[in-house]
Amino acid sequence: MEDIDIEKLQRKLEITGVAVDLYVEQDGEFTLKQISKEIDMSVGEIFDYFPNKESILDFFYTSLLIRYRLMLDEIDDFNSYSLSEKLSNFVYASFDLMAEKQVFVEQTFKSRVRCGYGRKEFTKKVEKMLASFFYEDTRISTASSMLLNDLFFQLLTKKYLYLVSYWINDDSEGKERSMELTDKVTAFIQEVMYNSIADKGFDLMKFLLSNTKLNCSGSFWDKISSKIEIR
């Protein structure tokens, strides 16, 4: 992970936390002067960290990924996790971090993240995060690894955004349905990526091609067919 200036991050999180609270309390209206009063920081100092109010609100979502990366540093055996475990861990952590400011997320996720897909730093960082899980996993089959490209991770990010949207609107107790859906989605993705049937098929084709003359005699196939009992 790239080096992070912890002191700078803490200041940005402090500014963002106040801005988000003011946004919720005042129906989306707040000023930098109000923020400065809450955190004993001049407006000029706030500009040292953010160019405008909108960038402060956008940073809330970006900061979730930064905080998650810091959390991963505390998990010694994370690299040993299976693909579904890594994906589930990321989604669950996202739910927990967003729950800290759930009202703000409910009010802004669609407009600032989901419908701003491709333009927001948050979604680009999600793509990068997901890509690291796949590229670092040696259990992914050779055939499945051919799926790994920018388009694949863009589509996967859209699925992630859908899970967050589902969680936001989930009225089940403890948001159990969101957890169940996450488990099913991540298990399915792992099943697809770890499945070695295609690899075995390629190996078989290579063997057959290297041991069969490319003619119509069918000598090699005749030998195979003679061993097959048709029922």
UniProtKB/TrEMBL annotation:
What species is this protein from?
Answer: Halalkalibaculum roseum
Q: Where is the Tetracyclin repressor-like C-terminal domain?
A: 86-208
SUPFAM superfamilies, A to Z: Homeodomain-like, Tetracyclin repressor-like, C-terminal domain
Q: What is the name of the protein in this document?
A: TetR/AcrR family transcriptional regulator
Recorded superkingdom: Bacteria
Q: Which residues form a coiled coil?
A: none
